[in-house]
Amino acid sequence: MKFGKEFLSQMVPEWQEAYLDYHNLKAILKEVSISRQPKAPDASGKLKRKMSLYRAFSGLTTQRNSPRKQDDAIITNIVHNGSEESYQSMFFMSSDRGGGNEVLFFRELDAEFNKVVRFYKKNVGELTVEAEELSKQMDILVALRIKVEKPDVASNDVDEPVDLAGAAASSTVNSINGRSTEGRSRFEITQEVETVDEEMEAKEGNSYSRKGSRGTTQTIQEHRPASLDLLPHVRVNIAPETPVSTLKYMVASSKAGLSYKKTELRKSEELVTRALIEFYQKLQVLKGYSFLNILAVSKIVKKYDKITSRRASKVYLEMVDKSPLGSTLEVTRLIERVEAVFIKHFANGNRRKGMDILRRKIRKEKHGITFFSGVFFGCAMALVAAIIVVIHLRNIFESTGRSQYMDNIFPLYSFFGFIILHLMMYSGNIYFWRRYRVNYSFMFGFKQGTELSHREVFFLSTGLAVLTLACVLSHLDMEVDLKTKRFEAITESIPLALLTVLLLIIFCPFDIIFRSSRFFLIRSAFHLVCTPFYKVTLEDFFLADQLTSQVQAFRSLEFYICYYGWGDFIRRSNTCKESKVFEAFYFVVAIIPYWIRTLQCLRRLIEEKNVMHVFNGLKYFSTVIAVAMRTGNDLNMGMTWRNLAAVSSVIATISGTYWDIVCDWGLLRRNSKNPWLRDKLVISNKSVYFAAIVLNILLRLAWMQSVLGFREAPFIHRQALIAIVAVLEIIRRGIWNFFRLENEHLNNVGKYRAFDSVPLPFDYDEMV
């Protein structure tokens, strides 16, 4: 793989604009190469004399190497402007052939390198401030741990302070074991304090020596602060995790003080652990950012040397080594400090365990998944062909039981069809998100190493497809076969057994079939059920949006309950449509997903104070009204209800389409760099965006058709028509998914947001 592609693949997607523009510099070098090529001879055939023949004669005894070495093609300089530093290079040979392009190359290289250095220094500064904050949080956590687990311990027996930032040590500590501590960081002194403590524990058998009147012990006790004195000034800042705790949090007028309970300590430890892991991975990514950009600079200047036959790379790389980017000492020290603190306080001194938790997990692709995906897909195609053959040979479409089958059995199996199609669309979404470097796993908040790839999602969809189609085929075969026809109860229970198997797999507590992803889905679904009591995150409202496209699947679940609970499923008959309760819930289950999104918009409005959530909530509320009017029209309440259903459905469709394209996708910006699209696009082919806009509008009209409730067409059964409209809506949602996350990703890129912000557990007064 060429370095340009490798460089792009190794970038942090959200920081892409902060990296060296290797592609542009390479394009300039191509122009340099072209401009340095010798020109063709003129028409007269006379060769032009080289400029070197007109230079001054240097004598026969002069050495061949010129007074100006090849290294002198450029000189570098560091310009100080207040606290800012900029790195510049000056090219001497601009009068040579192609010299103008070479000047442009070094000008662009300097600009790109200074951009990278500024970004690196900015992040180092932010991480240093964050390290100071984490140090204070760790001091409070250690004091809280002692207060909870050993409440009788005196304040002067508290563990040593944790200083991740390496702040200057206290001037009172001048020596440890006779060694000078001046000019050394507080963290390094802390490490030696730990060593002394361990030695004294081994010798004397107690935690800390009480002999404060002698030597080293007295020095250590002077350095150790009375951390327990911090606790009265600390307020807990742990976000509520359950609906009950949310209600208590809302009732409380202000943040409470510490309660010194074990549950409070456990939650605080979890938050600090997450914060340290996130902080450590930021440091690792920033260190990788430095290394990758230095490598890019090295590659591009060496490529320049190769093209021009000069030796400018040595001089330029010396300047790079002198820059902050060339020395990652600060970041490396922070990494070492975080490792030491984490291993001691959260891994019981077990380095292997601590490093395993800290390091970023990378999910490995399994070849078995790809193999079985292909096998299942082939089996699914074979089963589809078999079902078509069975239907044709037995002339099922012309049989007397056709309508009975479509009214009773088809809705049961169509439920699985909707899920399979949605999984396949999601698999396609993941494939294209990865292809265009949209960081979906970060935006969804997946735990590292647990996110599913497009192959794994496709494996799930094809596996469920094989299971469903096998049940459909066996159902048809058992119904016609004389040997099995008498087992009607078993035959008619196949759809229920299939649903039971699916639910058992979803809620299976064992670590099989992607347990972490299943539990993530269950947790997000529970957040939707208790929407007002949980902070709304992207994965929550994204899942709610998916459910708005699965209204027909919810209605199929309702039909499952009615058909097997109150219907005569053995005789394949039911009275669900005659039940007022069924009709009422038929209306309710369609409203629930849109009502959840409305409540989510209300919660986000309260938290973020953004008026856009008002309009978004009104959009979903208009859909709720449209569904209500549609239900009234189905109940034959008169022409007034029909007109209201039509008007409300048109309003909901127009508002939904506008919000999809303008707000969710960020398109139709007339003054953008890409007319009627947006400034930044991940797909270079602009026609894809216009095609997606047109498809979204057309498929929205199909959704409007379902809301308006057109009656059964003469050539197709009503249930089949409902399924087709539902399929079109799922396809529309799959298209919407890609562009929605693309827009969110570009917003993160604009803010260089590549990491989660973990809330810290403690608030404290400034004097702490």
From TrEMBL:
The keyword Manganese does not apply. GO terms for molecular function: inositol hexakisphosphate binding. The chain crosses the membrane at residues 369-393, 413-433, 457-476, 496-514, 581-596, 644-667, 687-703. It is a multi-pass membrane protein. One of its GO terms (cellular component) is trans-Golgi network. Keywords: Cell membrane, Membrane, Phosphate transport, Transmembrane, Transmembrane helix, Transport. Residues 170-180, 206-220 have a biased composition (Polar residues). It is found in: Cell membrane. Residues 170-220 are annotated as: Disordered. Residues 1-318 form the SPX domain. It holds the Pfam family EXS. Its main location: membrane. GO terms for biological process: cellular response to phosphate starvation; phosphate ion transport. PANTHER family: PHOSPHATE TRANSPORTER PHO1 HOMOLOG 9, XENOTROPIC AND POLYTROPIC RETROVIRUS RECEPTOR 1-RELATED. Belongs to the SYG1 (TC 2.A.94) family. May transport inorganic phosphate (Pi). This is Phosphate transporter PHO1 homolog 9-like isoform X2. The gene is LOC111489516.
